Amino acid sequence: MKKAYETEGKQLVSDFEKNITLSIVDEAWKKHLRKMDELKQSVQLAVHEQKDPLLIYKFEAFNLFNSMLNGINKEVISFLFKGDLPQQSVPEIEEAREVVRPKEKLQLTKDEIPNSENANREAGETQQRQVTETIVRDMPKINRNDTVTLQQIATGKTESMKYKKAEALLATGEWVIVND
Question: What is the pTM of this model?
């Protein structure tokens, strides 16, 4: 605090920047190590392609490291440009004062205290009282292997077939299900 006061807050900003940069580097390094493990496993398959796995590993690892550095630089710069320390103006800072309220005397009789057994029972009843909504169908549910009668809208022609075959005709919009 003494350093922060002497440097007029510049030390706080410097410490803030260091902490943010370190946390971003830490997260990026963890991701990089996970990617390196994945790379190690995937490069082992290069033997089947008759390629040198070591060369592929070195090349891919270099690309991963460069992309990690570029990502860190972008993220740190972006955060530091967007980040801002909140500032308080002098009038907003006030001394805290305790509010004194008169104490109320509470006296309850044994009958006025809710019985925990009754309270639990009432809570259970309110949970059971929840209304479950039931689905009411206009027509009974049709299973895929049920036989249905279809009618063509334009000509009035009717055909009977299994519902699974009728689905394609119904999808065209030219046929409808006729109730027997």
Answer: 0.42
CATH superfamily of 2-86: Helical scaffold and wing domains of SecA (1.10.3060.10)
Q: From residue 179, how far is each of 7, 127, 135, 166 by CA, in Å?
A: 87, 41, 20, 14
**CA atoms in the 13 A half-sphere facing the CB of 84:** 4
d(CA 44, CA 41): 6
Determine the number of helices (DSSP H) and then strands (DSSP E) in the chain. Answer: 5, 3
CATH 1.10.3060.10 residue window(s) in the chain: 2-86
**Nearest 10 degrees: Cα torsion 63, 68, 73, 79:** 150
Name the average pLDDT for the chain.
78
Both tokens of residue 97? 């004062």
